[in-house]
Amino acid sequence: MNISESHQKELAIAKSLLENPGLAVKITNYIGTPIEKGLALLPDNWNRNIANVTEKSLMKASEAAIFTMKDIPGEASSNRWHKLGVAVSGGMGGFFGLAAIAVELPVSTSIMLRSIADIARSEGELITSLDTKMACLEVFALGGASDLDDSSESGYFAVRAALAKSVSEAAEFMVKKGITDEAAPLLVKLISNIAEKFGVQVTQKAAAQAIPAIGAAGGALINTLFIDHFQDMARGHFIVRKLERQYGYDTVRDAYNLLPKNAN
What we know:
Layout lengths: L4 H15 L3 H9 L3 H5 L6 H19 L14 H18 L4 H22 L7 H9 L17 H22 L6 H27 L4 H33 L1 H10 L6
Helix pairs in contact: 1-10, 2-9, 2-10, 4-6, 4-9, 5-6, 5-10, 6-7, 6-10, 7-8, 8-9, 9-10, 10-11
Protein name: EcsC family protein
């Protein structure tokens, strides 16, 4: 099936959002200091602790962020309000430094997941659908280009393919039995896989906040860039999913892969 010209343009926008550039590049462009300098300032045990922090943040966010929203597919998303909420939590994190990230990250992640769901709804998704909720969580694994990513899984469809098994296992079980204690290990496995990718972005965020003199204002700016990045990932992701509902997965993937990265 051929994709219409207008939908080709939408797909080009989606690819440009999903593949360019990484969060580290965006932060560096704004603060004028390479992220590598901040990485050198992180504690020695940071990498050991980050997986635990990101997994807990994603699990807490998944429990509450989407369930208070109404199903109104096509309603415009409220990106600015979500950015304001994350900026406030980022200001707190910037003021108290790295010690606050275990408190601040669950808050900002919950706000971001709600924003992601809002964007999903604006692209025609039913946010009460389990499939949509899983797709919202997937966005945290879509980091965009990054030197810290495994190059074999940096492409959008490659990341989705890597998550496909754990997504389908968790979804299938919860469709049959709901969110129960029995389902918990499958959901934990999915969130663990997502957290592995999300942790790269969290590390970059923390590295920027570790740079001396960032302070509360800098923390707010970095968190605004953080949510802006994932709002871009969400917009691209749900444009692709919208087109897949019309044309099918294979057709959209093939058309996506034929487009240059700077396609819009």
